[in-house]
């Protein structure tokens, strides 16, 4: 958006001479007051004329040495604006005047329009100097890794702008006429406001590309975060305000019959009334009531549904009413990797996943979901019996002659000579895992036991897995 001119700017004035006179003070005394010999409009691109005060000069209604010039902003005020952390205190230069004394004055206006006047700019029109200097009002920011699928969170609070607010003179809000509540937006640029440091994304409505502009983006998209802080944007379409005419309360009830939390389904349908059946209506995100109920994001933390909802099971739901859903307190187990123990009754030494050739093995989300169940109930290790293929270690090198003890059925020791390269293959052992995890429950750490077999070789076979390592 903005081109840095590093405090130097060719102003594009063809002539600054007596022939270009726009304003001449004919009443000033030649002996005591200067006369304006030219006062012309700057023709260079507007964005290249963004400036900031240096704090060395005051702002006047006319060039300061001309008779009748009145102070608009004192030197002290201009110094405060020079050190300001607000973009509103930047200026836009739009005219340049030259006196018979050879002094140059720029006419400027603050980005919020509060201050307007002339400020001393030295003796040359080739660059901004003395009272003002060129300013980069924004800085390039890193683009988010996700650029599609955004929604407007609250257009009344954070709308679209032609430029991040106050970084350009007369930056204005963009009309959202025609934009729907379900519209998705794509990010194509990212900048931060230089003084405030606030992040803005440039977004375009995927359904109507005439609707586009800059919007405050909070902390920006974070791929590793479970919740996003996106300012005026959201990853889901935003529901309307809930009323008895457009919403249904979901009441989550635990095993003891007490409520453990609620959530609210708000329809995107128009003109609905209290006691109307919800039927197949959807919310702003496009979810039916059954899908909304089944979404774990809406379930109270630490609980799972006893039975998933279906369209049939919620068919009697009405606006202004309540749907009661049974839930259970859940717990999620984690998995740690172990070598076998010598006694065969417990796990042996814990393995470091950073020593595996591809780090911690990835699992599908379906497999990871099986690690969650009712709290305080037994966990059967047979659940993970088919989770893991053989895992290879990184390539190792023997620093001395050694004998490696392999494990598993009919395993024999392997002799490795000093300087030999080798790797270890870890193979999941279901029986040893079951023995090492007697009496564990959901929420406990599962000690997965792997037999070890060494191979002397200069390369490690490729070992890839797809899914998540968040387990």
TrEMBL record:
Taxonomic lineage from the root: Bacteria, Bacillati, Bacillota, Bacilli, Lactobacillales
Protein's recorded name: Surface layer protein a
Keywords: Signal
Residues spanning the signal sequence: 1-22
């Amino acid at each position: 958006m903005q081109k840095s001119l590093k405090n130097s700017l060719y102003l594009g004035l063809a002539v600054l001479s007596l022939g270009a006179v726009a304003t001449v003070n004919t009443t000033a005394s030649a002996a005591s007051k200067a006369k304006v010999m030219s006062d012309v409009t700057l023709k260079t691109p507007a964005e290249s004329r963004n400036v900031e005060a240096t704090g060395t000069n005051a702002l006047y209604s006319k060039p300061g040495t001309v008779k009748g010039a009145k102070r608009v902003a004192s030197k002290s005020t201009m110094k405060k604006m020079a050190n300001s952390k607000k973009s509103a205190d930047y200026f836009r230069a739009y005219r340049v005047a030259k006196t018979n004394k050879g002094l140059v004055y720029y006419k400027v206006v603050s980005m919020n329009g509060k201050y307007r006047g002339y400020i001393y700019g030295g003796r040359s029109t080739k660059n901004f100097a003395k009272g003002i200097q060129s300013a980069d009002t924004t800085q390039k920011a890193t683009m988010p890794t996700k650029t599609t699928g955004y929604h407007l969170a609250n257009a009344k609070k954070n709308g679209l702008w032609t430029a991040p607010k106050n970084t350009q003179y007369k930056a204005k809000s963009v009309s959202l006429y025609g934009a729907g509540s379900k519209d998705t937006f794509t990010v194509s640029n990212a900048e931060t406001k230089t003084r405030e440091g606030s992040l803005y994304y440039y977004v375009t409505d995927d359904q109507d590309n005439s609707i586009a502009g800059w919007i405050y983006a909070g902390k920006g998209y974070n791929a590793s975060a479970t919740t996003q802080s996106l300012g005026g944007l959201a990853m889901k379409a935003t529901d309307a305000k809930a009323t008895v005419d457009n919403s249904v309360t979901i009441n989550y009830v635990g095993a003891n019959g007490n409520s453990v939390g609620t959530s609210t389904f708000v329809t995107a349908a128009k003109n609905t009334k209290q006691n109307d059946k919800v039927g197949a209506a959807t919310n702003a995100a496009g979810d039916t009531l059954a899908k909304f109920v089944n979404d774990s994001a809406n379930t109270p933390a630490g609980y799972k549904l006893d039975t998933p909802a279906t369209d049939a099971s919620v068919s009697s739901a009405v606006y202004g009413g309540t749907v009661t859903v049974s839930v259970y307190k859940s717990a999620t187990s984690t998995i740690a990797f172990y070598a076998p123990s010598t006694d065969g009754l417990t796990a042996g030494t814990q393995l470091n996943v950073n020593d595996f050739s591809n780090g911690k093995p990835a699992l599908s989300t379906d497999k990871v979901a099986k690690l969650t169940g009712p709290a305080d109930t037994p966990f059967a290790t047979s659940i993970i019996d088919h989770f893991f293929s053989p895992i290879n270690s990184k390539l190792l090198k023997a620093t001395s002659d050694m004998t490696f003890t392999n494990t598993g059925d009919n395993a024999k020791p392997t002799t490795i000579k000093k300087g030999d390269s080798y790797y270890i293959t870890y193979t999941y052992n279901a029986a040893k895992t079951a023995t090492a995890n007697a009496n564990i429950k959901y929420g406990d750490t599962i000690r997965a036991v792997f037999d070890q077999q060494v191979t002397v070789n200069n390369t490690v076979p490729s070992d890839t897995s797809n899914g998540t390592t968040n387990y």
